[in-house]
Amino acid sequence: MRQEPSQKVLLWLVAVGFFMQTLDATIVNTALPAMAQSLGESPLRMQSVVVAYSLAMAMLIPASGWVADRFGARRVYFLAIVFFVAGSVFCALSHSLTQLVAARVVQGLGGALLLPVGRLVVLRTFPREKFLQAMSFVAIPGLIGPLIGPTLGGWLVEVASWHWIFLINVPVGLLGCAATMRYMPGVPAPTVARFDLAGYLMLAFGMVALSLALDGLASLGLRQASVLVLMIFGLASLVAYWLHAARRPDPLFSPRLFSVDTLRIGLLGNLFARLGSSCMPFLIPLLLQVTMGYSPLQAGMMMLPVAVAGMSMKRFTTTLITRFGYRQVLVGNTLLVGLTMASFGLAAPSQPLWVHVVQLAVFGAVNSLQFTAMNTVTLKDLGHDMASSGNSLLSMVQMVAMGMGVAAAGAVLAAFTDFFQPTGTAQTLQAFQATFACMGLITVASAGIFWQLSPQDRSGSQAGASVDAGDHG
Question: Mind giving me the DSSP string for 292-328?
């Protein structure tokens, strides 16, 4: 693929922005116990740090395309980096969990715009026959971020402090700001459709209310009545949005999208399968450090088998889907993901190291296959007029499910911690074991959704290539 020098720099700029976002989504997990100790909190109740970032991203993704068209990609991308860097600095300066969560929201608002706006610029800059190659290049740093994130986070905690996992974003962000102003095209679209503000507010409120309800059970100290009220308001807001969208000629996400069987099944499958599996990058480092005596660096290095096996599995995904079809692959693999997650309920400090490594590698492989297959089946049958909207909806569902999965795992872990009334490591280990078993069963239950796919559907598609680039859950 021959490119002008400015096009090469543009690809690097989008790739580095994607790398910053994916790195930050994974680097925090191994540092949570150190953060908890510094802030005077329990390490078992730190999921709000992860949930706030994912939820902030999910809230802004539906508006990202309209914002880029209205104000110009250069200005929006520059502002996204500024928000991301400012949020990183505020995270490093936080002296309480509340301050840290608020700073993660600011950081997430910036991160939400990096990939969608970058992808939009690449789509408009490169001809269609070169778009897949361009997005494949952009995707590579996105795969490297989760690979090095946990280990880098653990290393920084040990050699410096947890504050540096956020401060390392500052020099990269400053260089990104300078490159954005020089190389990013930034002319706003000549005509921009009116933004569906009422629909956006309904959708955003519904997502926030449901996520806060789950998180409130674990870390916010909300009473059951408050949680119930939040859940009812959240569900009512989402129902109101779909009724509103059905009447509006240009909604954020048209109900017509759900007339496509594969998108409807793929979205629901994404949501419920990720409610289980998205908690693993949060739970595993906690398990290793809190109950097994691993250092932050050791816990981070134990996540390497997950990332390496996940990257290695990508080359076999198309072959498996072509041979067995989407339904067989997704039903069988969803069961494998859930059972592998539940197998962590047998984890114990007395087990040999190689057992843990094999267990983590198997989870990484089946989870990678799951993400790629779910993404491609969701988007592969969309027409050109619905592709952009469907892609944004899938990205939003991914981030919502990631945040809700971590919140749900935190709530389950808190419930089992209270149930076992821990007075030492053994009881805390029992709480972790029961949590892994429960979250694994949630994932197993989602296999029934993928059973609704047509058994004849075997067509591989490249539609998932670009969206898979944005998937680091």
Answer: S---HHHHHHTTHHHHHHHHHHHHHHHHHHHHHHHHH
Q: Burial level of 304, CB count in 10 A (0-12/13-18/19+)?
A: middle
Give the pLDDT means over successive 10-residue stretches in the chain (473 positions). 64 83 83 89 83 85 80 86 93 91 92 79 72 70 77 89 90 87 72 82 87 67 72 90 86 82 89 88 90 88 88 83 88 94 89 91 91 83 72 82 86 82 67 92 92 72 46 55
For the beta carbon of residue 18, count every other beta carbon within 10 angstroms: 26
Whole-number pLDDT of residue 127: 72
- Cα separation, 452 vs 231, in Å, equals 28
Cβ atoms within 10 A of the Cβ of 315, count?
A: 8
Nearest of 166, 185, 183 to residue 20 by alpha carbon: 166
Question: In CATH, what number does 259-473 get?
Answer: 1.20.1250.20
| CATH topology identical between 1-193 and 259-473 | yes
Indicate the fold that domain 1-193 takes in CATH: Growth Hormone; Chain: A; (1.20.1250)
Q: Domains of the chain: which residue ranges?
A: 1-193, 197-251, 259-473
Going by C-alpha positions, the residue among 336, 400, 394 that lies closest to residue 369 is: 336
The answer to whether 143 touches 312, Cβ cutoff 8 Å, is no
